[in-house]
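Minutes, project check-in
Item: structure for the 149-residue chain
Input as provided by the requester:
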Amino acid sequence: MSDRKKNNQTSFSKNAKWEELYVLTNYWKSDLEFYRDDLSFLHHLVNKYFLWITKSENIDIVKKLKNSLFGLKEKVKALLETILEHEVRLGYLVENPNYADHDFMKKKHAHLEEEIAQFVKSFRNNRMEVFKITEYIIDSEKLAGIMDD
């Protein structure tokens, strides 16, 4: 993330109203639920092609890919849990703006924003890797004819 963009986001988090942060947190939750579902699809895709693999080098590649997908799945699960807790705390602040955790909540929000950005970057890289590896395995295993059925 560029420094300018990061500074703008940090500035927003510091100056935003609790209601705005609450709405943003809901967007994060929705996005992460989408990524969670997409990871399930990618896992299904990898499992589908795994059945047809005969070359040991390809089996090793897919095992690493599956481990990576599992790691992302665990990360999105943890992020969703953290965001749900954060959302509840923000709800308290929306209802009672004088709640004592102002600074902590602003820092927590900025930290979550950074964690989500890192997750999205990892997710996108992993997704591209899944498609590259799938294409490679289809070609190297000569599965194109089998998979058309």
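Outcome recorded: The chain has one domain: 17-143.
No further action items on this chain.
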